[in-house]
Design goal:
heterodimer; A: 294 residues; mainly alpha; ABC transporter involved in vitamin B12 uptake, BtuC; two-stranded antiparallel sheet; 12 helices; 3% strand; B: 493 residues; 2 domains; 18 helices; 75% helix; 0% strand; globular
Chain lengths: 294, 493
Amino acid sequence: MDNLIPFLVVGLSVGAVYALSGVGLVVLYRASGVVNFAYGALGGLAAMVCWQVIDLEYADWLGWVAGIGSATLLSWGYGRYIAASLTHQDRVVRAMATLGFALMIMGIAQWYWGDDPRRLVLPTDASGIEVEGRRLISHTRLVALFLAAGATLGITWLLLKTPLGLRMRALQSNRTLSALLGVRIKRVDTWAWTLAGLLAGISGLFMGNMVRLNPVVLTFLVIPAMAAAMVGRMNSLAITVSGGLLIGVIEALTALEPSIQRYGSATAFVVAITALLWQQRKGIGLSRDNSHLE
Amino acid sequence: MAREKERPDTSPGTPLQRIRPLLITFALIAGVGPMVLSAYWLNTFTTVACLALASGAVALLYGQLGMVSLAQFAMAGVGGWFCLRLVHGIGLPFEIALVIGALVAGVFGLLVGLPALRMRGLYLALLTLMVAAAFQVVVNVIGFPDGGPGWTGKVVNGQRALIERPWLASSDAAYFRYAVLWVAAGLALIEWHRASMPGRAWALIRKSEAAAVAAGVSVVGYKAYAFALAGVLAGLSGGLIAGLNGQLDDTGFPVSQSILLFALTIVGGAYHWVGALFAGLLIRALPALLNDHGVDGNLANAFYGFALLVSLIQGRKGLAGQLADFYKFVRMSRIIEGTTSWVGIAALVGLLSWWADQTTIAGAFFIALIGLLFRIAIPGVCWLLLGFFGKPVQDKAEALEAAASLRLAGWVESRGWTADHRIIKRALNWLFIGLFVGWVAWGVFQVPFLAALAILWGAMALKVAMEHALYPHILPLRQRIDARWPKPFAAYR
């Protein structure tokens, strides 16, 4: 059992970042009906900008602000201008548009920063909780875990207790009726995108620290995050978080079994496919988009 | 709730009529290609053809049925894997292994598609994304067969083996023609389906599944069939790529390629087979061209993302759709006139440049043809890009251009020459084409840039001069032709 603990720790912390990303994806999907493929790309950009600022000898906190700020800004811009011109199209098209956005960000980031090995060091890396002289979990990973939990609670509070959250839920329920009732759709949508950008930036920093600081790798980390969101049926935050943590833990534990060790990185996908098939077993339609029916 | 725009139905015509342009185009490509391309570009364009087939599979699912499949490139990998394994393991001839590999990929495609039968578009997209990602991991681990033992057929230590090309297609040029033949057959198969019962069934399913069920169309059956067919075609393209290089790269089937394949299918046009060709060119030929000039491939990716965004905002018809839209209004007289004048000019230009030792006749001919293609496509693309900034900007730009053109045309008329009221648009068009196609000619055909510019602008100037000189004589002929034959592509969508 003892030698499982390091794996559990790593698994939980990576899973926490998957969960955090998944929460961001679910919130955006609930509010605007868009699956954001650009989530990982935004996070990757945040991490690279942060690293660049720190590399230029500025203060650490400036780097974090710059990184998270750039992700939030881009996401706001996309939501305000581009997503707005696509609202009349169906969900698939809007999701594919974010794919285009992701390719753009990834392409430019990869061109500018390239493949050089880099490390994003956070000040909490150096310290951690020690047990019997051995490092059990670094503070960075602890912060990631707390952030995931905190973000979930915070967003749940936002959705349930604030007027903005109420409007987001109204939009999720029926956009046309909400518009008729006077909900400012563009404004609520923009807020949803801004929030998603913020979460993307934060999770991007952690991903850059814990996984790898490379724009392409970080962009495609959106896929495990989507896996977590799919487990939560793109709806439930709590299940998304559990899904993300589960994926992280299973992925870490595959390292123990030699025969499946090298397939470890496929864990998220297998979990997502299983979850999807399980959810579909009774033929439940998960998308509310009925535009195909006359 | 606003409805999505009406998507084009299957075009009219018997299956054979529908396939004929495709077959003619591919016959031309197969015939002319090896004559004008260097060895490197010949291999590149063989890959382009294979990717066009994979793109056709994606287009089949998206254009016909509105189903997003991000796993088609993974299916190509499956087809290639089985083809390699069969050739190495049992020693089957290439063709048979190719077909069996394709069929196995079809089965995989069907398996992926089965859950989709009850899923709506977005969840299918996510599912196929997961499948593609899982495939990347699996293939990274087990690798592509290269002559080794066991289930995976991977050689651990020692010489990796390549499969040999089929005996009647061993040279690069011959394999190019061979691959083009297969690709033409695959795309023709799709067109045949579109023009007959399956195509109509798919169109009805896309419009409304409830109506399809009411009409007695088996929704499950036709959807499953579409997935299987798409899988088979993708597997075929994978096998052909395997045959080209003798092997497949373990890292050659990442998720990013699957995503790019889908994105560029949309950009190229998912509703027409020409779109698949464009997609293949964009995925493979354009990056190669950019590489030649030291442009980072990542910028190409960024550009593709931008193009995808623009394409989606503009109504998803893609480049091929823009072309088809343009052709809709074209009159028969203009087609005949255009073809004869361009063929004549291209031949003249070819002779001149051969005499001036700038390029081969075939090379100059090809440049002229590319110029013609861009002449048709560029205004549409510019309009498309403007649309990215919103309809008011688009309208304003069009109004501005029209006003300037009319002003200029009035001035030209006052000089006693005949003027075209779209003069500004054409002038900008020619300017851009000269520069862009000249760059392509420089990159692909190694023609000196200035010489290419001279060829293109000279050709255009010649054409304009000819039109001016011959207009009074041509006009009655035009009117007679138009009276006789209606617009040929008016009904084509």
